[in-house]
Specification:
197 residues, mainly alpha, 0% strand, globular
């Protein structure tokens, strides 16, 4: 990574962390992008270059929606897909834990603000779509394969379980526990009835 990329990453992190501090100090609605830029010591045009909307700034610590897909793609080809997917999930959770000291309180913001919640759903949808593409490539099937879609939804399910139970324990540790429970559970899939109702 070159100096320009390092400086850009630092600026993004500074803006995201400053915004989170301010959102919890004075409220999401009451905090303007101008307020964040001023406290971070950057020009408003710099902030807009990185985060065109407040909702994008509010979800910045999640990082690139392609993080899980990229991690899955980078795993060894001889590693089973289930384990590779587990590594991809943990990579995302490790990233969010390291990128945002307020990650445990993030749900407070999304629950209180419909636009921010909508942006989170957009982010998750893009992460899911990109994970489908990576899973399909790894398995040598079409991206719209129903098995690929179901597998990617299971990854999203693990993330939701971690979010729903945050505070019980560290995110990655909780994800490991949820994945272990899923592996041991007799998962059932809907079956087409032979007798039409």
């Amino acid at each position: 990574m070159g100096l320009r990329e390092i400086n850009a990453a630092r600026t993004r992190q500074l803006l995201a962390t400053t915004a989170m501090q301010m959102f919890f100090e004075q409220g999401y609605e009451a905090t303007t992008l101008e307020d964040v830029a001023q406290r971070a010591g950057v020009g408003i045009s710099t902030l807009y270059r990185y985060f065109p909307t407040k909702e994008q700034l509010g979800t910045a610590f999640l990082g690139d929606p392609g993080l899980m897909a990229d991690e899955l793609t980078g795993r060894p080809a001889d590693e089973d897909t289930e384990t590779a997917l587990g590594h991809a999930l943990l990579a995302l959770l490790e990233h969010t834990r390291g990128a945002n000291p307020y990650a445990d309180r993030f749900r407070e913001l999304t629950d209180a603000n419909a636009r921010l919640h909508g942006r989170l759903l957009e982010w998750l949808s893009e992460a899911y779509d990109r994970l489908c593409v990576a899973l399909a490539a790894r398995r040598g099937v079409a991206a719209d394969d129903v098995g690929v879609a179901a597998t990617a939804w299971m990854a999203v399910f693990v993330l939701k379980q971690v979010d729903d139970r945050r505070g019980e324990e560290d995110g990655p540790a909780l994800a490991r526990r949820v994945m272990a429970s899923l592996s041991a559970a007799p998962l059932l899939t809907p079956q087409s009835p032979t007798d039409p109702a």
